């Protein structure tokens, strides 16, 4: 199978496509119209959430416009003027870009959820029957194993994937007692592991959804993805399986209203974070933020027990926080940036 590598122009093309929506996605002209901009894999979840909100007094009669795509591209487009009342993006950095641009208020994450609206975990998606016997991250570095993951330059999902792999190998920037980075002795090992894993990547699609599409079409042996995306793909009839590795990462996605959004935008976001909205998210594979009672989720490995507890669940706090790891891994001279530049 031929290997495909990301080209710098690919991100510009993707951004151009999203930015092109500025002229065709109308701004909200009244409280009865809202515009949602989200990262690619939440499209189906918002369809469910908007339907349940429409049955409430606050949501009755609201018309919607929406745009979905790679989180980084969507964030840059909104910062550049893409109309939006509600944004639901993959990583906090993509919302903070909008704070800097004046599109989102600096207090967006002051609520009890800390700005988070959805969550999931990173999984390994395999072919039917798991023919390579993939159970853990190390299996992705074996010679000849072809891996698919989105492009970290455009996709927030890709950054979560890389974080999970890095953390599984001991990567962390959290300070240990005495002030030294807790992971310092293992940083070279964690970075070496990333180099071996990325060396097996055969495709870097632009978004988490594009990566699923490529894998379903036959590219690669293993897809690094999120549990919700794997469940949704199975709901849609894709013949795939997924494995939760012993060590995985808690993926938490932020959402906010824009500074000029009508009050109903906040009503919708409150609904999304509440029990009905979280049940809607759970129905498409996202792990609820709180207790929503028993849920049966078609497409999950065990629909009646859709969200098993991972053996070891790593969080952003465990590795030093988003700002630190984002710069360390994905900054202009970050570990992943250098590895991709070198063609790892």
From TrEMBL:
InterPro entries in the cross-refs: Thiosulph/SO4-bd
Subcellular location: Periplasm
Domain of life, source organism: Bacteria
Single Gene Ontology BP annotation: sulfate transmembrane transport
Keyword Signal among UniProt keywords: yes
Assigned protein family: Belongs to the prokaryotic sulfate-binding protein family.
Descriptive protein name: Sulfate transport system substrate-binding protein
